[in-house]
Design goal:
With 248 residues, this protein is α+β, with helices and mostly antiparallel strands. Helices cover 25% and strands 25% of the residues.
């Protein structure tokens, strides 16, 4: 996993990730409260900017904004940088996460709101005539060939949704309790001739509802399962599944 996956929060907030990046980040997002807060903050900022729509823009505004966007450089110039003045390293503390390039994404959100004024309805997270781009998880849930299988686990309910055409599967868990102390819930996909292959770990804490993608190509899987494994997961199941979903 990319060590700087946290830095994708801005791109995710404006739906600028490709499907593979989006799937990987959503799996990370389900287990990272800090990224959840940052994505929520960026989306709230874009919502607040929509208040600008009360002001009638001049006719040339859209063209000037589009022209300005093409001049934005996401990286600094390639010329050799000027050496900064000497600084006592012991007196300066710079938090690593504060170095994320957030401003370009806020500018993108602002530009999207401005271009939406006057019924233009253009933004980086729309495709076609005003249709919102679906996340990778939503694509599976809305796929025409979506196959839904449901199991009851005590007072909890787990649903696996698989799309063969997309090659992906998603789990929806309602009222899933926290895993026992020192244990994790591990997801599996079963393949002919291979047996059970790890498809990721569920968040350890209890949640009213959890929706997350399973790792791996689910198009050729014959089943999916959930087991209780030692913290951090196992290379192969060490216990009988608490839920097993057969795709046949």
């Amino acid at each position: 996993m990319n060590a700087d996956i946290h830095g994708l929060s801005g791109a995710y907030a404006v739906d600028a990730l490709d499907p593979e990046e989006r799937m990987a980040f959503e799996q990370h997002l389900a287990q990272c409260p800090e990224c959840q807060a940052e994505v929520a903050s960026l989306r709230a900022t874009a919502t607040n900017l929509s208040a600008l729509s009360a002001t009638q823009p001049p006719p040339a505004l859209r063209a000037s904004v589009l022209a300005a966007i093409t001049t934005v450089r996401p990286l600094p110039p390639l010329e050799p940088p000027v050496a900064p003045p000497a600084v006592d390293a012991t007196s300066v503390v710079v938090p690593l996460r504060s170095r994320r390039p957030r401003v370009p994404w806020l500018l993108a959100a602002a530009a999207a709101v401005v271009l939406g004024i006057g019924g233009l309805a253009w933004s980086p997270w729309h495709t076609g005539a005003g249709r919102t781009q679906l996340t990778a998880t939503e694509q599976v849930l809305r796929a025409d060939d979506a196959q839904r299988l449901q199991k009851t686990i005590g007072s909890a309910r787990a649903t696996i949704v698989r799309s063969v055409s997309l090659g992906k599967a998603v789990i929806i868990a309602d009222n899933m309790p926290a895993a026992p102390l020192g244990k994790d819930y591990q997801l599996w996909l079963e393949f002919p001739g291979k047996g059970m292959v790890s498809a990721g770990l569920m968040p350890h804490d209890a949640r009213p509802t959890l929706t997350m993608p399973l790792e791996g190509d689910a198009s050729k899987a014959i089943a999916a399962g959930i087991t209780v494994e030692p913290t951090g997961g196992s290379p192969a199941p060490t216990s009988a599944p608490i839920a097993l979903f057969s795709f046949s």
